[in-house]
């Protein structure tokens, strides 16, 4: 099997091994592949592995040898799956590899906004504490999570893990989910979206991106949230209308926004969120712990091996 990895650097910048894949076929790894070189690099491949490279119908029409596309991510919207299916090309993804890491980043953002660790560490380095007349000082609002209400939009693997952690913090947990109330663990209350917005001190997004959830958070939904509430997005950038969030932050209606994802990645330097003091943006790194990336690589190898052996594993074709 001729295996070509078209954009391997993000998943493996050099701290993991490609050897398990090399044992399954002839492997060529490219750190990055611009759109203009996708067909040239993939034309002789039986198997291609991608992360963010777009594989649409036009590309597929030029790859008659291709039998398998492995997406090194949970989301697979970069592939025209219907077009691949028509051509008999198997498409797989990597489910549930980053649950712990993304849940951890969710609370890193929450704790950063509520405790402002980075702010105070920076001020201490700059001498602000050393020059203070009292043994302590603070110049931001500080609050504890115990007794606060968190609203979780989406109770998949990550949303459920966030709910569990929130309960350990002593938070009240409300969720907007397709799951039946009777099937939810103790301490998680199912509610409507409007009900969730109305009661939540913190709203965190863990739902898939589709036509119904694109710009789920917009001017109308933001107006329904509590004054000074916190919004967290470690799901998908287009779940929010970024201009509306920026306006809510500027007005003070939204107390803070923590996001690891943006609509355009990397974002334009003119993105309105980057100018907001209470917007805290990390560069899509929730998934990128070494542990999560190793799980991703392990599952990728298992997917490819299963395909070569004629078995089905993590196939997303309809």
Report what the structure shows.
With about 325 residues, this protein is of the alpha/beta class. The chain has helices spanning about 20, 40, 55-60, 80-85, 100-115, 115-125, 155-170, 195-200, 220-225, 240-250, 290-310; strands at about 1-5, 25-30, 45-50, 70, 90, 150-155, 170-175, 190, 200-205, 230-235, 255-260, 280. Strands 8-7-6-9-10-11-12 form a seven-stranded parallel β-sheet, with helices on both faces. The chain is globular. The mean pLDDT is about 95.
Globular, elongated, flat, extended or rod-shaped: what is the shape? globular
Cα-atom radius of gyration:
22 Å
Order of helices and strands: EHEHEHEHEHHEHEEHEHEHEEH
Structural class: alpha/beta
How many strands, what sense, and barrel or not for the largest sheet? Answer: 7 strands, parallel
Poorly predicted spans: none
Q: Kindly estimate the percentage of residues that lie in beta strands according to DSSP.
A: 15-25%
Task: Tell me the distance between the termini.
Answer: 25 Å
- The mean pLDDT is 97
For the biggest β-sheet, the strand order reads 8-7-6-9-10-11-12
Number of strands: 12
**Alpha plus pi helix count:** 11
Q: What percent of the residues sit in helical stretches (DSSP H or I)?
A: 25-40%
